[in-house]
């Protein structure tokens, strides 16, 4: 039977994503007329109340934007403040930051792969339901996730909203002994991450590719995480301080989150697929080989295969963390002095779900006079809607339930962080 | 066999961190799932079972007219309602708007403020409906969460002590950062529960578990002044993640007035 080609798909509350959002897809006569990713998570006003706070408060305060990727907020805030004050941290402190960030990647990617996304592919409503038939798999995922959380606890003091991060470095550097304790669970996590890549590669993916414009950080020698230059597609690479010159945001009525676009109006994608396309050659050898074995090729344009790319990044993060642990030496000082001065600072890092940009203006006494935060989910919003539009149209003959489920899965491909996406910023959007 | 108790997890304005604490149970997560029926937990499951629920865990604060109605529905459907975290317990970081003009905030953040539907104040769940137990923290502590769920399932009161962070420092043998190094610390007036984390990382407590049962905040402010902290900074430190908890609000206002 052919189902109605006039469709309204509505999901009132998206599940297995961070935060609160809904989806609306409306089709008439076989054509998709309207697609809305509706973010109704209440606005939280971070950019407004950061004004008048001290510059050293930004890492603790902005961490509270998101419980799943607090380190990303802390690191982008630190980068921006150190940039504003003209200070660079020592290589040892930078390494410790990378280790902390690896912990967040491992925790967040494992959470998404096993607890939020895998049930879609195997047809369960949740990982807990899935565990009834695939207990070993879920237990493996929880072990990997725990290894990431152990890093966060040791380096950051706490896995959610770490307390040990400050502008200039850390309050206390962990001892070699404390760091050494992470090695064993991490080696196991690395083995299991390789298993994860192989397992995800064997899942079934819809035949769907999009011609994405990828945006993300790129670093000359590393798979960029804690810093880098902003790559826009293959040909353009600019300093992070030029973020605003290239990326603008606009407010739309159906969402409490702003939509980001390139200045020329093009939409783009940030996140694992973008990073993989921009920096594949910088992956740890074990992760690069696993990617080839998984059939990923040089670029992956099928968003449903993002689960495989995330698994590759999970493996990379485990390998990177293992090397950082082996080479760890306690820094002489856990933090460098950062005396405030009047100025503007920019900072961007790669949150698990994509590039996270912060900009602050501070006064001579260190008081924040302006704050701008552009989370990855705002940047991806428009692309998510475009995916839905392109994915749904040729499939309008599917049953309502199947179609709705596929659309939800298409949204989950992005691991969207909806709480993150609802509190933007002072924007100069003209003429809506 | 009796039916498994129904557990629900709800989210209001927040960062999802306290809900994530449930998923971070890792070693105990599948055991928990085997003991209770996880009947509603959108962050983790797309299947939701209708109420009533035996225990509801509520994260986040009330900041929109819609949420002010929704929390009443959650209350009606729940036998026990437990708030988890600073947002649900004191209005959270969202409550920083309570000290300012929310319209100005909306204009700063949004080009089209008229699209935004938000309340002037961010309030704790207990300001809206009856709450059976409040679990503190930004975020909550995993061990305390297990204790609270276990206690309610067993029909007893949870063992969550109301003493200050100082007691936890003494118990773990951490040298006092304020006495030994002159580091400003909110430990003396802050509710225990984190295990005195910050002092163990050589920094003063910044109060993410909110005020303890009987905090002498004025006395602490006096000590902080002696340590060279300005009134303005004292006001700021009380105005963070539990800004609208009565004792912290009063102390921040008092310092703000004298700044």
Number of strands of chain A: 13
Low-confidence stretches of chain B: none
The proportion of residues in beta strands of chain A is 15-25%
Which term fits the overall shape of chain B? globular
Spatially, the strands of the biggest sheet of chain A line up as 1-2-3
Derived from helix and strand composition plus strand pairing, the structural class of chain B reads: alpha/beta
> Roughly how many Å apart are the termini of chain B?
63 Å
| Greatest interface | A-B, 72 and 64 residues
Query: Which percent range describes the beta-strand content of chain B?
Result: 5-15%
Shape of chain A: globular
Give me the Rg of chain A, rounded.
21 Å
Name the assembly state.
heterodimer
H/E order of the elements of chain B? Answer: EHHEEHEHHEHHHHHHH
Descriptive account of the structure:
The complex is a heterodimer of chains A (432) and B (259). Chain A is an alpha+beta fold. Helix content of chain A is 42%, strand content 16%. In chain A, strands 1-2-3 form a three-stranded antiparallel beta sheet, with helices on one face. In chain A, strands 6-7-8 form a three-stranded antiparallel beta sheet, with helices on one face. A three-stranded antiparallel beta sheet of chain A has the order 11-12-13. The radius of gyration of chain A is 21 Å and the shape is globular. In chain B, helix 11 runs antiparallel to helix 12. Chain B is 39% helix and 11% strand. By secondary structure, chain B is of the alpha/beta class. At the A-B interface, helix 1, helix 4, helix 5 and helix 6 of A face helix 1, helix 2, helix 5 and helix 9 of B.
Give keywords:
heterodimer, A: 432 residues, alpha+beta, 14 helices, B: 259 residues, alpha/beta, 12 helices, 5 strands, 11% strand
């Amino acid at each position: 039977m052919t189902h109605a080609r006039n469709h309204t798909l509505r999901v009132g509350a998206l599940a297995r994503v961070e935060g609160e959002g809904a989806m609306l897809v409306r089709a008439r006569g076989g054509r998709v007329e309207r697609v809305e990713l509706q973010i109704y998570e209440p606005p939280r006003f971070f950019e407004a109340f950061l004004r008048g706070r001290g510059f050293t408060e930004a890492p603790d305060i902005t961490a509270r934007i998101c419980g799943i990727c607090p380190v990303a907020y802390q690191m982008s805030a630190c980068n921006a403040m150190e940039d504003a004050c003209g200070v660079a941290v020592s290589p040892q402190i930078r390494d410790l930051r990378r280790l902390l960030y690896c912990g967040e990647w491992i925790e967040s990617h494992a959470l998404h792969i096993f607890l939020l996304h895998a049930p879609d592919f195997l047809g369960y409503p949740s990982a807990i339901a899935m565990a009834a038939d695939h207990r070993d798999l879920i237990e493996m995922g929880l072990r990997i996730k725990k290894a990431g959380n152990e890093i966060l606890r040791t380096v950051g003091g706490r896995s959610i909203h770490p307390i040990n991060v400050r502008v200039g470095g850390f309050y206390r550097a962990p001892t070699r002994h404390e760091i050494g304790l992470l090695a064993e669970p991490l080696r196991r996590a690395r083995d299991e991450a390789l298993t994860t890549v192989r397992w995800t590669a064997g899942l079934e993916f819809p035949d769907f590719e999009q011609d994405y414009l990828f945006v993300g950080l790129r670093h000359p020698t590393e798979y960029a995480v804690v810093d880098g230059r902003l790559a826009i597609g293959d040909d353009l690479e600019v300093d992070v301080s030029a973020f605003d010159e290239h990326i603008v945001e606009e407010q739309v009525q159906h969402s409490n989150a702003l939509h980001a676009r390139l200045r020329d109006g093009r939409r783009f994608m940030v996140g694992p697929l973008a990073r993989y396309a921009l920096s594949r050659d910088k992956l740890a050898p074990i992760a690069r080989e696993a990617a080839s074995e998984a059939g990923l090729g040089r670029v992956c344009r099928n968003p449903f295969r993002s689960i495989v790319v995330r698994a590759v990044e999970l493996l990379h993060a485990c390998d990177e963390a293992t090397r950082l642990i082996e080479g760890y030496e306690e820094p002489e000082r856990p933090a460098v002095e950062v005396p405030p001065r009047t100025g503007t600072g920019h900072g961007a890092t790669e949150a698990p779900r994509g590039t996270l940009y912060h900009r602050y203006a501070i006064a001579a006494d260190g008081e924040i006079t302006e704050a701008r935060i552009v989370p990855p989910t705002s940047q991806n919003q428009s692309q998510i809607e475009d995916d839905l539009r392109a994915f749904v149209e040729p499939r309008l003959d599917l049953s309502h339930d199947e179609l709705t489920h596929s659309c939800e899965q298409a949204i989950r491909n992005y691991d969207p962080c909806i709480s993150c996406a609802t509190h933007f910023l002072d924007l100069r959007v003209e003429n809506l | 066999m009796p039916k498994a108790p129904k557990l629900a997890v709800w989210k209001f304005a927040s960062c999802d961190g306290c809900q994530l604490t449930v998923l971070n149970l890792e070693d105990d997560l599948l055991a928990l799932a085997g003991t209770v029926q996880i009947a509603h937990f959108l962050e983790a499951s797309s299947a939701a079972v209708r109420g009533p629920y035996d225990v509801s865990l509520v994260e986040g604060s009330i900041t929109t007219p819609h949420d002010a109605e929704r929390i009443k529905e959650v209350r009606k459907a729940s036998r026990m309602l437990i708030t988890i975290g600073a947002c649900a317990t004191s209005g959270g970081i969202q409550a920083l708007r309570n000290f300012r003009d929310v319209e100005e905030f909306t204009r700063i953040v949004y080009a089209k403020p008229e699209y935004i539907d938000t309340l002037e104040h961010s309030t704790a769940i207990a300001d809206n409906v009856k709450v059976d137990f409040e679990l503190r923290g930004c975020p909550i502590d995993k061990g305390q969460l297990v204790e609270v769920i276990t206690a309610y399932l067993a029909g007893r009161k949870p063992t969550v002590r109301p003493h200050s962070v100082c007691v936890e420092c003494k118990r773990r043998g951490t040298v006092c950062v304020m006495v030994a190094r002159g580091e400003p610390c909110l430990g003396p007036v802050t509710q225990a529960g984190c295990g005195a984390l910050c002092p163990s990382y050589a920094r003063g407590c910044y109060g993410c578990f909110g005020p303890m049962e009987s905090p002498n905040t004025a006395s602490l402010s006096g000590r902080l002044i002696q340590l060279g902290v300005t009134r303005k900074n004292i006001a700021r430190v009380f105005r963070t993640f539990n800004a609208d908890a009565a004792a912290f609000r009063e102390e921040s206002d008092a310092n703000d007035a004298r700044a």
